[in-house]
UniProtKB/TrEMBL annotation:
Protein name from the UniProt record: Receptor-like serine/threonine-protein kinase
A Pfam family per the record: PK_Tyr_Ser-Thr
MF terms in GO: ATP binding; carbohydrate binding; protein serine/threonine kinase activity
Species this chain originates from: Castanea mollissima (Chinese chestnut)
Residue ranges crossing the lipid bilayer per the database entry: 393-415
Mode of membrane association: Single-pass type I membrane protein
EC number in record: 2.7.11.1
UniProt domain Bulb-type lectin: residue ranges: 27-150
Entry-linked InterPro entries: Bulb-type_lectin_dom, Bulb-type_lectin_dom_sf, Kinase-like_dom_sf, Pan_app, Prot_kinase_dom, Protein_kinase_ATP_BS, Ser-Thr/Tyr_kinase_cat_dom, Ser/Thr_kinase_AS
Length: 760
């Protein structure tokens, strides 16, 4: 009996302890000085919503502060740090005594949700998660009543609209309330779609990249024309318009039911149960039903339409383009074709109705009456005006179809034999034929045939998006190697054990799809030990990624401009790096099958392998020259100021000499250990190039040498490097045409031909 009583007591204590733990965890408020770590949560008073840290991608430490429905963790209604993930194990939300609300993590920058607030000694500050899903920062009077609202999550919406939230404009602080989709289902960063309230037109608008995608129609009575019938019966809408604010909000007619609208990364507006609030899946820029918006290119007429036909054009494959992106549906293909003035027809590339195939500059179309050939969608003004079936053509069409089909299949077989693309990933059918076509196009094959190139290109891999996500641990912070104006670079490891570097292009960078394809094509065509090796690419929705061989020593600037690491670069290593860069440029300018001008040569674009061998990288801004082309002119000057030649920076004229100028600046940086753009001198208000020029004229050139280079045994080599750099600059300043001679043998000091340099 005593043992049974003890057992009952133990069970009671365990249950009581669990209840106490749950009670302690189920707090809804942070007070000044409190913090919330990655394993703790706030739960609203009635348990409807939970606030805490989450990571949308498994097997990663990338963490975000969010609010979600307590009974469905996947239905997240707000993300506090969608643009800057933190490390999950060290993530903390803190409410400081000054009223500042911050997300912090070890080794990362703090994300400030609300800055410090001015308060007096008689008030207190608290942050509370309400049952409405709103997280509010409040200043309270000494008796606990509300003094003022300092900040609230409802003013910083992400991709979800809850009852009571606002869509509209705040005229007092010139801010807006709008939704922005996620970039992907596991990437909370802002995506291409937004939901806004047009307070002048009294309608909701979904935009894609700022262009109207769908409109709800004007609010008439108590509902909108182009939302679903179910939505019309489920929600009450209210509009507020005054001098301070103009907005729309909604409430659920069925009291007590959970409700939320979600703007998906594909542009769908969904309710809590997954049903459509608005049917936007058919909005493609062409269809105008159900509120869909149509944007009409100048080359199109309002009567133009696509007609579904079975047959083929006689010009295949010379006038076709392929897009293997499996996230593109048939409607995406229609939109893409509609917006390209030269596009005359489209269809799906794969049997599952994904990917796209486009026809340009169409010739005569032959109809297949047998129905064997899959249909395509042909652009015509009107079916009745442009196409009439004539019985007299039937015999010709049937006979011609049979012969041309055989020819067409032979061409397809020939093209398949030319493919050198290897797919890495889960879906063996996902091959980027669009990029393959660019690499194998006549535009580039005409430049082939240099005897110095024994290898005709190399394998170009198209990586599956999920494969890259797994390799980089969902782009975790631990895998981040660096960042630049183009975006971020992550380290990854593929199942075979090979390490890779993933260059993930930012949508806000100046490098668009043309630069992406440019870099992809160029590096896949160029083969040299001093050029970075491209392994492949990945295109997924709005994502553009280039996959390179991994460089364990990162870029040259990481060593050169670091006071500690620069000591690891003795002069023999620096000279070897200078020589390697020179050899890489010499290959680009003279010996590759494509004559390439890099246009952005600088220390951060020179990578170092495990043996400190230099590899020129980042060909997004590069240009291809014909062998007989000496210079070109552009209105769009790209590159980095401080490394640009004068005529390129001021007049847009670039040539081989432009890269040589950049190389000269880079040589000075390697010798001096100083950065040209950030250099300053107390006695000389000039940059590094100007300072070196002054020292050279004064005969004090060695004063430019990096103090970390203590060995004087190599002073002659250093002086020779500075000497060649200064003569190249002098030639630029005097417009001396002898530079063309140096281009015949660039960097003669490196090739041990001093006489060619000294003969002036």
């Amino acid at each position: 009996m005593a043992s049974n009583q003890n057992l009952h007591n133990i069970i009671f204590l365990l249950i009581f302890s669990c209840l106490l733990t749950l009670f302690a965890e189920a707090r809804d408020t942070l007070k000044a000085g409190d913090s919330l770590n990655s394993s703790s949560h706030l739960v609203s008073s009635k348990g409807a919503f939970t606030l805490g840290f989450f990571h949308p991608c498994t097997n990663t430490n990338n963490s975000y502060l969010g609010i979600w429905f307590t009974n469905d963790r996947k239905k997240r209604v707000w993300v506090g740090n969608r643009n800057a993930s933190v490390v999950n194990t060290s993530a903390v939300l803190t409410l400081e005594t000054t009223g500042s609300l911050k997300i912090m993590s070890q080794g990362g920058d703090a994300v400030t949700l609300s800055p410090s607030q001015v308060t007096n000694d008689n008030s207190t500050i608290s942050a509370t998660l309400l049952d409405s899903g709103n997280f509010v920062l409040q200043e309270l009077n000494s008796n606990g009543t509300l003094k003022r609202l300092l900040w609230q999550s409802f003013d910083k919406p992400t991709d979800a609209l809850l009852p009571g939230m606002k869509l509209g404009v705040n005229h007092k602080n010139r801010s807006t309330w709008s939704l922005t989709s996620w970039l992907d289902n596991v990437i909370p960063a802002p995506g291409p779609f937004s939901l806004e309230w047009d307070h002048k037109g009294h309608q909701m608008i979904i935009r894609r990249h700022g262009v109207e995608f769908w409109t709800s129609g004007v609010l008439k009575g108590d509902t909108f024309e182009f939302i679903t019938d179910e939505s019309k019966s489920n929600y009450n809408f209210s509009v507020v318009s005054n001098e301070d604010e103009e907005y729309l909000s909604y409430t659920n007619i069925k009291q007590g039911e959970q409700s939320a609208w979600f703007l998906s990364f594909g542009g769908k507006l969904l309710s809590f149960d997954g049903s459509y609030v608005a049917e936007t899946e058919n909005c493609n820029g062409y269809n105008t039903d159900g509120g869909c918006k149509r944007w009409l290119p100048r080359c199109r007429h309002h009567d133009d339409m696509f007609d579904k036909r079975s047959g083929y054009f006689i010009h295949e494959p010379d006038h076709t383009s392929l897009d293997n992106n499996t996230s593109h549906t048939l409607n995406d293909c229609k939109v893409a074709c509609w917006n390209q003035c030269g596009c005359d027809a489209y269809t799906s590339l794969y049997d599952n109705q994904t990917g796209c195939k486009f026809w340009f500059d169409k010739g005569e179309f032959f109809q297949d009456l047998s129905g064997v050939i899959p249909p395509i969608y042909v652009l015509i003004p009107k079916p009745s005006q442009n196409y009439t079936k004539k019985p007299t053509w039937i015999g010709f069409v049937i006979g011609g179809t049979t012969a041309l089909l055989v020819i067409f299949l032979c061409i397809l077989y020939y093209l398949s034999r030319r493919r050198n693309v290897i797919l890495e990933g889960e879906n063996d059918a996902t091959i980027d034929d669009g990029l393959l076509e660019l690499v194998n196009s006549d535009r580039f094959t005409s430049a082939h045939g240099s005897q110095n190139d024994t290898k005709q290109g190399h394998d170009l891999r198209v990586f599956n998006y999920n494969f890259i996500m797994a390799a980089t641990n969902c782009f975790s912070l631990e895998n981040k190697l660096g960042e630049g104006g183009f975006g971020l670079v992550y380290k990854g490891k593929i199942p075979k054990g090979q390490e890779i570097a993933v260059k993930r292009l930012s949508r806000n960078s100046g490098q668009g799809i043309s630069e992406f394809k440019n870099e992809l094509i160029l590096i896949s065509e160029l083969q040299h030990m001093n050029l970075v090796r491209l392994l492949g690419c990945c295109i997924h929705g709005e994502e553009r990624m280039l996959i390179y061989e991994y460089m364990p020593n990162k870029s040259l600037d990481c060593f050169l401009f670091d006071s500690t690491k620069s000591k690891m670069l003795d002069w023999p290593k620096r000279f070897s790096i200078i020589e390697g860069i020179a050899q890489g440029l010499l290959y680009l300018h003279k010996y590759s099958r494509l004559r390439v001008i890099h246009r952005d040569l600088k220390a951060s674009n020179v990578l170092l392998d495990e043996n400190m061998n230099p590899k020129i990288s980042d060909f997004g801004m590069a240009r291809i020259f014909q062998q007989n082309e000496l210079e070109a002119n552009t209105k769009r000057v790209v590159g980095t100021y401080g490394y640009m030649s004068p005529e390129y920076a001021m007049e847009g004229i670039f040539s081989v000499k432009s890269d040589v100028y950049s190389f000269g600046v880079l040589m000075l940086e390697i010798v001096s250990g100083r950065k040209n753009n950030s250099f300053s001198h107390t006695e000389h208000s000039v940059n590094l190039v100007g300072y070196a020029w002054e020292l050279w004229k004064e005969g004090a050139t060695l004063n430019l040498m990096d103090p970390a280079l203590t060995d004087s045994c190599f002073e002659d080599q250093m002086l020779q490097c500075i000497h060649i750099e200064k003569q190249l600059k002098h030639i630029y300043l005097t417009k001396n045409q002898k530079l063309t001679r140096y281009m015949g043998c660039p960097f003669p000091i490196l090739l041990h031909d001093e006489d060619s340099l000294n003969d002036k």
